[in-house]
Known about the structure:
- The structure is a single chain.
- With about 650 residues, the chain is mainly beta.
- About 5% of the residues lie in helices and about 35% in strands.
- The protein has 5 domains: about 1-25, no CATH class; about 35-45 and about 290-335 and about 355-455, TolB, C-terminal domain (Neuraminidase); about 50-255 and about 280-285, TolB, C-terminal domain (Neuraminidase, 6 Propeller), CATH 2.120.10; about 465-540, Sandwich (Immunoglobulin-like), CATH 2.60.40.10; about 545-640, Immunoglobulins (Immunoglobulin-like, Sandwich), CATH 2.60.40.
- The chain is built from 3 helices and 45 strands.
- The strands form 11 sheets. Strands 38, 40, 41, 42, 44 and 45 form a 6-stranded mixed sheet that branches. Strands 2, 3, 4, 5 and 6 form a 5-stranded antiparallel sheet that branches. Strands 7, 8, 9, 10 and 11 form a 5-stranded antiparallel sheet that branches.
Amino acid sequence: MLYRLMGRLRQFHTYSLAASLVALALIGTSHAQMTLPDDFIAEPVVTGLNIASDYGFAPDGRIYFAEKAGVVRVASDGALLPAPFIDLSERVNSLGDRGLTGITLHPHFPDAPYVYLAFSYDPPEVRSLAGDAGPNGGGSRVSRLIRVTADPAQDHERALAGSEVVLLGTNSTFEHIGDHETRNPSAPSCGSENAYVRDCLPADEHSHTIGRVRFGPDGALYVASGDGADYHRSQPYHLRALHLDSLAGKLLRIDPMTGDGLADNPFFDGDPTSNRSKVLSYGLRNPYSFTFDPETWEPVMGDVGWAAWEMVNVGRGRNFGWPCYEGGNGENIEQATFRSFEACQDLYAGADGPVTPPAYAYEREGVGGAIIVGEIYEGNLLPEEYRGALFIADYYQAWIRIVHLESDGGVGTSLEFARVPFPVDVRVGPDGHLHYLNIWEGRLVRLKYEGPEPAAVAPTVVARVSPRSGPAPLSVEVDASRSSATSGEPLEYSWRFGAGFTSTAAEAAPLFFRGRHTITLTVTNASGVSSTVDIPIRVGEPAPVATIDVPADGTRYAPGDVIEFSGSGRSADGTEIPADRLRWHLTVITEDGVDVRGMPPMTVGTTGRFYAADRGEHRLELCLTVLDFDDHEDVTCIGLHRE
């Protein structure tokens, strides 16, 4: 992003960081001051960083920062520790937008003491060379993702020597660089069409390299990979963003321990080490930042555009059309620069399937644009208008906005939230407050709301009721213990079973006789805010039957397995119930009794598969709910046990 701006300011175009800073100072006053909404204040969290590009929170409050030049720093209680966690600067190429661009910690850190680092790579062979061919040179390069282990003997503040594992880019080597002396060479890095190198990430330009790395809600590891191509001129190798056998211009989804593609990825070909098996979505230019929709688990990507548009793209298994399309806001616009390419003509003609337009996009203003996707806010510390909103930022435009994406795929709407200098990240910290990272001033800043107390968020009700139909008399087990409050406070339960029977326990076992009944559950949080659900019970009426065929109850699995499931439903007269009336739910049950959702809600159909991530779980519970045409329901569940 930075280097592309330098290209726009031709009179200041230079490889020197000092000159880059001078050029940035001349952009205008938009980066000079911060403007926040009423009732918000800015609090410094950590200062003194050296061009920090990304960061990750540890459960104990420490923060791990990736500095662009290749150094990882740890901050404790707001102060940077004197010794780095690890120094990769000898192998990180940090010219332009290259550098150490992504860091994330394992979700179970420090029990799983892994830190993941994404960077543009200077192989050992360049260290003896000079100029563009040498260290931090401007010639073509490649990228890597590595995993390192935090040393428990040093309180996880230093990397364990010799613990590095290459997860992506085992073939990102000197041998597979197109031309280490020249950027955008005629022979691109990592091969070309019909001869792409396996597990190689090209970085032929000074921008659009590997980006952020994040764990998804499913426990898989996601990696942003730019097209690595010229940002000034059209080149044939821009088209590798459309080729599934290249890792360029993609969002990747891999196993966090092996780097393999997952069997439930949309383009999995049976070989977990193939490039296409690792691809989740494609046709992307520079999907540098991304997050996940907490309701659907779909990836939400910020794709930095060419000359006119910045885009928010949503979805897995999608082609977003770059370089043949760019923008607009909810519609596909042909990219005139690439219109003559045969691959684009085929795409326009529909020969290569549909292209998904942006869920939201905006046109550039002034000097440029570089979108940063933050998070969708789910907390209770901000006023109601922010709940469910996606926070995005623009590095060049120096603002933060909120975007409300439409659940039906319609175009999202936006509202400016704040003006802030040099934002490269905006997200919610473990304290529930917004944080933004200022790359050039070396600061992590908390944006704290101090206005009137926001309305309390209603608790989430989870009512486990089984069976819901059957012969009279029917004993029904009810359980509300998996309901939850946003801030984790205790809950009160109120069950009404009809005929004056009630309970205030989390669990109960009422008895019902012939007829139709309604169970009403009300869950109330400490603020007195309630949520209520009704569950119909039918006794002595014909009922459907749910059957899970695969896997069998009691099946054992290992973390990292992809588990296939299938099932069916039949009405009381034996008629098969359609697939769209079958719903699956996976619960991850940990040894301390904590339950979390194991796959996206409303997973529908007769078959499916899920990735069994290592969540420190004790077992999994897979349930199938079927609904017949009279809205009679049956639920069946099986248990899966960790090896």
